[in-house]
Amino acid sequence: MNNFQYTRVKSPATAITELSKNPAAKLLAGGTNLIDLMKYGVMSPDKLVDINRLEFSDIKRGQGTLHIGSMVRNSVAAADATVLEYQPLLSQAMLAGASAQLRNKASMGGNLLQRTRCPYFYDITADCNKRAPGTGCSALEGFNRMHAIFGASSSCIAVNPSDMNVALVALDAVVQVSGPKGNRSIMMADFHRLPGTHPELDSTLDKKEIITGIVIPDNAFAKHTTYLKVRDRASYAFALISVAAALEMDGSTIKDLRLAMGGVAHKPWRLTEAENFLKGKTASVANFKLAAELAMKGAKSYGHNDFKLKLAPNSIIQALKTASGVKA
Amino acid sequence: MAKKYLDNADMARAISRVDGRAKVMGAAKYAAEVQLPDLTYAVLVESSIGQGTITSLDTKKAEWAPGVISVISHLNTPGVPEYKLENQDVIQKQLRVFDDANIYFNGQPIAVVIADTLERAQYGASLVKATYKKENHLTNLESNLSRAAVPKKAKADPKGFTSDFIRGKAGAYKDAAVQVEEEYIQPSEVHHPMELHSIIANWEAADKLTLVDKTQGSQQTAASISKSFQLPVENVKVLATYVGGAFGSALRVWPHEIVAILAAKKVQKPVKLVLSRNQMSYMVGYRPHTLQKVALGASKDGKLVGISHESYGKTSMYEEFTENVLQMTRMMYDVPNIDTKYRIVPLNVSTPAPMRGPGEATGSFALECAMDELSYKLNIDPVELRLINYAAEDPDKKMAWSSNYLKECYRLGAEKIGWNKRKAEAGTVQDGEWKVGYGVATGTFGAFRSAATVKATYKADGSLLLQSAIADIGPGTATAMTAIAAENLGIPPEKIVFQLGNSTFPKAPMQGGSNSLATVGSATVAVCTNLKVELAKLAAQQKSGWNNAVPDHVKISGADLVNSDETSAKVSLASLFSQSGQLEMVISGSAAQGDEKNKYSFYSYSVHFIEAHVHELTGVVRIKNAVSVVDCGTVVSPKTARSQLMGGIVGGIGMALMEEAVIDDRTGRTVNASFGDYHVPVNADIPQMEMLFVNERDEHLNPMGSKGLGEVVIIGVAPAVANAVYNATGIRVRHLPITPDKLI
Ligand SMILES: Cc1cc2nc3c(=O)[nH]c(=O)nc-3n(C[C@H](O)[C@H](O)[C@H](O)COP(=O)(O)OP(=O)(O)OC[C@H]3O[C@@H](n4cnc5c(N)ncnc54)[C@H](O)[C@@H]3O)c2cc1C
Ligand code: SF4
């Protein structure tokens, strides 16, 4: 770990000033990802700007929306009655992530920005374009069991590891940020990037901006949501594949739906084509299979993760079965 | 004959872990937690290549960093005296720490930074830069089988389990009516005990060393270190009062321990060195990646005709590691023809180490899966197949078993799991979205004892202090010894303290190979007997009825010594102490192996039954029920024995479903060297479990009637899981671990 300065800020404005003054400064929320990365020597900020005292800790209803502050802890949001009533999918996804102890520390903002778990990203002796741009990608021909099947590039095939993000992208959430130029809103679908030739950039957030909260529009999915997480052990493991499914049913017809996948891309992966196909159709395993096929168009695997080409569609089908209650 | 299975009443009577409270409350201090005045901190710097030499090492920045006291490498090491002695065969030795510029594996310690705080040492370590002359490294087992060699040890011990062996005719399975011939792969598994390997090295004088160390053998570590540093063994004191698990990783001295001692010598202050979780992945051994070829042949009625079994395991470039992968194959079943071959493949990896159920856990995975495969080909129930081939005596040593209740284990386990629910045809039982299957497999591990002494200090206040150098890495050795002494003497357990993990205490073996109870337990019985003899002697001077007292009849009862024979003599302990004029009695007792080995073949047995559910779409495996029945002789300490078995099942589930240390062959580095990436089971993975014990005395090994337990509990669990998964799905996974991708 490098030597660094530490400051605790009391207002968002000071946080933004600190970030503007020092491009090598980093915000410190729960620290469960950032501190780990510093210990491994993967990230070496000059300065940590502790935002734990900022008042981004409210969960409240707006006009047809749910607002969650960026410093709300994952465990608090997951257990919150309003969240459970209006956005149960989000709670399910968060509870599928990490462990109880980690969720007690993890913040909404930090979770949005948690970095990939690609082992070569963590091993500072390995070539990795995300950590050290231009050195190459060790995963491309290496141990890439956890890696992407969608939207990857020859520069990077890493995945976004978050469970929460998968639910948020499915729910059309909006990330609210504040920066030197004022406030702005970023659609969740646009918040994370594909690697392209710049895998060092995970998101479209500017270095000088701070996330203040997340807004989720109301929907009619509460009765039919599932977050399916397929992993190597029953808890405390990142997803091989995860699927967020939210349905609005009218009898046996799918009136509306949202589908997204985790563990497959550099960003939480929304399954728009599959959604379009299923909208207005009868909930049946046959239709789920067709939707899963559509969702898999353009998928590409890299060896150790070949199994995802089968596990992903299977998981989509399973998530739809669970969410709809349809067995055949 | 009705069996004495351990029941709830036994459990209720059993004493609880004597150090449980201290451990739960944090009062038990492990090596890394011990503080000494003037303590300094050492952090290792590791190689980033797999084979070659260091061409330069830049330590200047580290030396100038705040708080750094010293940086030691091959350029300035104070040196390990043993390395300078003649006849040091590098190939057969532990890694020679900082001896030269050679690199044998990626992650090898190349320097150490010592500073006044841990953080400053860590920072200093990050500043050391090495350049290398890189050479081609080899880490892949399967693609380097051409390098497979007969271990040198095998040549020295032609009858051992690593030597080529033939009973009857080699390859006899080929003549049999029904055959199975398959390859099985056990990947490398890391011990990863909860407690990190830690050591504090403190030179109390130029020739006097004290170590607070995580070790499974305080005296063996003292002996090894005294040899390395050419010190009189009595000048090396090793303390391992509490050890937070080890599973075999602390059975020997590792490079980091030598480093800490060198560092303490250099800085002339005590040095603490704690490995990181990452370093634990490649610096303190692992269960070696092993490829096995197994062929079974049987007649149509299920009688085994021949077994051929070959094993190819990893070792390092500088040291031979062997284990008894093939022992079970030679003794488990009544087979006329057996041939085995054991080979090791030297690669650019660190040296493996025995890991719980060493050798046998790997071997049983292949043998017991192959038996299961054979059962399907024969269309004979797998339990039945094992009973058909039950060996009434040891076919390997041609000796009678000391005791063998395997048939009881099969019977009881089958009953408890509901074996009759199992369908003979695989992939036919469904519970909603889950496919359901049952599997069985057997484990065995040799039972033995060695030599030990226990010292007793019996005080006038009625308290008893017992001492032995034995380590307690978690099985509950102090608890079991307390139980033995309490039962033998009649002293309530609360009045007994068993101290261990100190090389200056009386002689004990390492805690490994399941012999602590048999060995130290025997010495505990001996010291209790000696104590009773002494007390009876004192009593005889006072009263009649004690002259010919038989120790077995003498007991302490409250404040009195009583003789339960026809004399029914009774004398107050207070009077005995006042008569002797002493406030305490100090006495020792020793026990050692007799000639029992020449008369009987000693093994413990375990039979594991597993109910597995496999998700039809995602391939996720959930173990729904585990029933294990163990024949380990008399159960001396029911609660800790039950915990041992529970831990074995959990470890076996990890081995079956998730554990695999992955090496990237391009660099030779471990890819999943963290607890986030290297998976062991979490609570949610663990099913309902039943831990059952036959609890029948073995008359020949030791006075308690016990055999061994710690190793046999894990052996056979992984194949039972693999067999259950096959029964559920019809998919045979021969390459552990059985992750979801292999089942979709
Ligand atoms: C062993 C382990 C297992 C895990 N398993 C899972 C899992 O299964 N699923 C899962 O989803 N997650 C998992 N996690 C990740 C965990 O969810 C994240 O570490 C956590 O959400 C990060 O939140 P934090 O508040 O601690 O972030 P920090 O570590 O404090 O910050 C992370 C990043 O976000 C930035 N940041 C934080 N807040 C803001 C803000 N308000 N504005 C702008 N930038 C900000 C920081 O500067 C930093 O770069 C696991 C973590 C660990 C250590
Ligand atoms: S996949 Fe991305 S993070 Fe992983 S090694 Fe390649 S560039 Fe680095």
Description:
The complex is a heterodimer of chains A (328) and B (744). Chain A has 328 residues and is an alpha+beta fold. Chain A is 30% helix and 21% strand. Among the domains of chain A are: 1-52, Uridine Diphospho-n-acetylenolpyruvylglucosamine Reductase, domain 2, CATH 3.30.43; 225-324, Enolase-like, domain 1. In chain A, the strands form three sheets. In chain A, strands 4-5-8-6-7 form a five-stranded antiparallel β-sheet. A four-stranded antiparallel β-sheet of chain A has the order 9-10-11-12, with helices on both faces. In chain A, strand 10 (241-250) and strand 11 form a beta hairpin. The longest helix of chain A has 17 residues, at 308-324. Chain A is globular, with a radius of gyration of 19 Å. Chain B has 744 residues and is an alpha+beta fold. Chain B folds into three domains: 31-136 and 192-281, Aldehyde oxidase/xanthine dehydrogenase, molybdopterin binding domain (Aldehyde Oxidoreductase, domain 4, 2-Layer Sandwich); 322-333 and 356-447 and 599-742, Aldehyde oxidase/xanthine dehydrogenase, molybdopterin binding domain (Aldehyde Oxidoreductase, domain 4), CATH 3.30.365; 452-592, 2-Layer Sandwich (Aldehyde Oxidoreductase, domain 4), CATH 3.30.365. Chain B is 25% helix and 26% strand. In chain B, helix 11 runs parallel beside helix 18 (717-729). Chain B is globular and about 75 Å long. The two termini of chain B are 47 Å apart. At the A-B interface, helix 13 of A face helix 5 of B. Flavin-adenine dinucleotide is lined by residues 26-34, 36, 51, 70, 97-98, 102, 105-107, 109-111, 113-114, 161-164, 210-211, 238 of chain A.
